[in-house]
Design goal:
It is found in: Cytoplasm. With 236 residues, this protein is an alpha/beta fold. The chain contains eight helices and seven strands, in the order H-H-H-E-H-E-H-E-H-E-H-E-H-E-E. The chain has a seven-stranded mixed beta sheet with strand order 3-2-1-4-5-7-6. The protein binds S-adenosylmethionine (SAM).
């Protein structure tokens, strides 16, 4: 898709899988400033231009990109509005990490670290941060090695969406939570089973919020994460 194929509202001009929804899809979730809406539009336009070559998001979700991806990605910031320094694990095309960075663009000290091991997606993420002016750094490495060798100072919050079961997200994020960060994870309708499974290995304080996009999904907010000792031993 060329730039001419995209309208000023981030909608493709026909073709592909039909019309794309627009920024009005954010209305039921949060109101954003004009500047933030403009940065989000630049990001969606860029993603739609890169999509044919890079397949950054599932093609079936493109017609509802604003609701399914952008509005959904407003939620970590809504859950933890005071957090300024974030790590987003497995950022993919930038949901929710790039959206969080855009929401924080005018906040002093704001920074979002985007951890994404796929080099082509990492290149897209760098371009998205540059073109939107959002504050962030792309770490194009495996989460496990980034967490082990973290040298970027403390963070307030960790996010992850569509990355791994909760039990694994606890393992990925434990170094950050041990330093006082709070985690906020998108979870689908299997959230209860995932909480039960993770609870065998981990103890944590948990706040559940019903997703503003899908009432069967949850935003899970975890803090005070600790490993339970078990007969099987400790998680690796
Ligand atoms: C299913 S996608 C989800 C992307 C995005 N968070 C979203 O919700 O659209 C998972 C992403 O995590 C990345 N990923 C998976 N395991 C990873 C790891 N151990 N370290 C770094 N990135 C990882 C993959 O390359 C992929 O882009």
């Amino acid at each position: 898709m060329t730039r001419q194929d995209v309208t000023q509202h981030g909608r493709p001009r026909g073709g592909g899988r039909g019309p794309v929804d627009g920024p009005e899809a954010l209305a039921g979730v949060a109101s954003v400033s004009r500047e933030t809406a403009e940065r989000l539009r630049i990001y969606v336009d860029l993603l739609l231009r890169w999509q044919p070559a890079q397949n950054l998001i599932a093609p079936s979700t493109i017609p509802e990109i604003w609701r399914r991806h952008v509005a959904d990605s407003l939620q970590p910031h809504l859950c933890l509005p005071e957090a300024r320094r974030w790590v987003d694990l497995g950022s993919g095309a930038g949901f929710p990490g790039v959206v969080t960075a855009i929401l924080l663009a005018d906040k002093p000290g704001a920074h979002v670290y985007l951890v994404e091991s796929n080099q082509r997606k990492a290149a897209f993420l760098r371009t998205a941060l540059r073109e939107t002016g959002a504050p962030g750094t792309v770490l194009a490495q495996r989460i496990e090695s980034v967490a082990e060798r973290w040298s970027h100072g403390p963070v307030d919050a960790v996010s992850a969406r569509a990355l791994a079961p909760l039990v694994d997200l606890c393992r990925y994020s434990r170094a950050f939570l041990a330093q006082g960060a709070v985690a906020v994870f998108h979870k689908g309708r299997e959230f209860r089973r995932e909480i039960d499974e993770a609870s065998h290995t981990w103890s944590f304080d948990l706040v559940e919020k019903v997703s503003l996009i899908d009432p069967d999904s949850r935003m899970l907010i975890l803090s005070n994460l600790a490993v339970r000792s078990t007969e099987e031993g400790f998680p690796e």
